[in-house]
Design goal:
Helix content: over 70%
Order of helices and strands: HHH
Number of helices: 3
Shape: elongated
Amino acid sequence: MNKLLATLMTTLIAGAAFAQTPAPVTPAVPATPAVVKAEAKAEKSVAAAVKSEAKVDAKADAKVDKAEANAAEKKTKALTKSATTKAKADAKVVKADAEDKTSAMAKAEKTDAKADLKADKAVIKADTKVDTVRIKAAGDKATASAETAGVKAEAKADVKAAGSK
């Protein structure tokens, strides 16, 4: 049993030590002038793709920020208008004669409900627009990221092809 444990422990320690040693670094392709030129061209194209992706990301974020600001403005405007309408209706109730008070209160409640409905619709519409812009921006970002990944893969293939010549 002791020999078995010793063997298992030795295997475990050796395996851990082997797993931690770095693999020898060998260049994928020899550094010929064609390879160096291809690598430089690849780095340049990858840098341009990354820059383009960052630009697309920034534009998409700016669109989302603008849409959120517009939505906040529209929501505030709708809620303010609703509050103003309700205040006017309540003022009419206060001014109404004693015998007309019940019908004025009913009319005010109906006006309040309509004002709330209109404000809710405006808020929902603004939120929907922001969500639409966010989804479009996410799509733009994903497309830019995919294009960058494609450029990187193409550049890697060009370097590899230059090494095989």
